């Protein structure tokens, strides 16, 4: 069934790390988010953590390793959030809308991790990674592709069912992802009116995307 | 009239630089594109240029200055391309579609410059800029906002005329820009079948965006 697609299932996806390693990852994600990969040092992360570099090197051999684990954890979070939606027993267009909403919510609620994923993709496009880093990055990108494929499958099913209407599947999938990811770059929830505003932002982004892909029905969440 | 909006007109927008400075900018844009701002040095740019650092320092006091001029030139190119469309005498939705097409073409045809603009925006969001850089970056962002306002005005007119249907103008504008910019990250024209493929990619992206914003009409370019 659907959940077995490309061997992606609850059993094959790691639970995002917790505990001591997670504290390091949170600090690292914040630093990468604020300065970008190149301008961040292990010193910066240690300072953010209020700890010694030794504590970080106990878990990670290098900045590249640390970055890789932030990326991996961000994707673990996304998989964990999206798999229940992907395997939901509901009409395909509803499934896609739910996946799109959940993905967009992830972008906002786990922003520093998701910006690291974005930067990893940019580094890959740039071929900016050093040889040692490159194979890790390629693996991480493959992991992200498996995630992207869950959406691609759903998009394709929707089109077969006449619920969506677009020309090239890959182009539709790419434009969809960039649009759903876009709050990474323009939205920071204001404290206080958080919840209702957040829901409205997500609904508006998803509505633009679903309609853009040719969906003509109602879009109440 | 429309062209006078926010003092943006052919008279107030610089012609993109040419000649010796343009050669430096082309080399710098390629380097920033491949490595990102932090990881690029003036040495890298000189090497790409097959020249000495002195030639660069003759025109630019620092890497930040050089980056600023790449950003500025990328926006000059966009303004020059979009102003004729913005002041075209045609139905509003047609004007928007033409502006969207032209903008997307710019992203593909002047990609290294546009990636620098994107990175400048990211640096601004991150507050990654150093104090000295910050005021230049703020000015550049304001220049980009004037460009974005041309689209915002057109979106708003379309909605008033009942041609588009979206909730929040700023959100619609942001999602639109990110989607139109997205080929920066996923499209590299294959040599040979360049022209027809390029046109098709642009048409597909613009179709998704226009429909996403609520346009229900025909979209033949």
Assembly annotation: homodimer
- The helix content of chain A, as a percent range, equals 55-70%
Q: Unreliable segments of chain A (pLDDT under 50, ≥5 consecutive)? A: 1-6
Order of helix and strand elements from N to C terminus of chain A: HHHHHHHHHH
Q: Count the E strands of chain A.
A: 0
Helix- and strand-based class of chain A?
Answer: mainly alpha
Measured between the Cα atoms of the first and last residue of chain A, the distance is 26 Å
Overall form of chain A: globular
Largest sheet of chain A, described in full? none
Largest contact between protein chains?
A: A-B, 37 and 38 residues
Residue-averaged pLDDT of chain A, rounded? 90
- Cα-atom Rg of chain A, whole angstroms? 18 Å
Tally of separate helices of chain A: 10
Percent strand of chain A = under 5%
Question: Can you offer a commentary on this structure?
Answer:
- Two copies of one chain form a homodimer.
- Chain A is built from ten helices and no strands.
- With 221 residues, chain A is mainly alpha-helical.
- In chain A, 40% of the residues are buried.
- The model of chain A is unreliable at 1-6 (pLDDT under 50).
- In chain A, helix 7 crosses helix 8 (169-181).
- Chain A has helices at 19-35, 42-49, 53-57, 63-86, 92-109, 111-126, 131-160, 169-181, 183-186, 194-212.
- In chain A, 70% of the residues lie in helices and 0% in strands.
- The A-B interface holds A 33-36, 38-39, 121-123, 125-128, 166-168, 171-172, 174-175, 178-179, 181-182, 185-186, 200-201, 204-205, 207-209, 211-214 and B 33-36, 38-39, 121-123, 125-128, 166-168, 171-172, 174-176, 178-179, 181-182, 185-186, 200-201, 204-205, 207-209, 211-214.
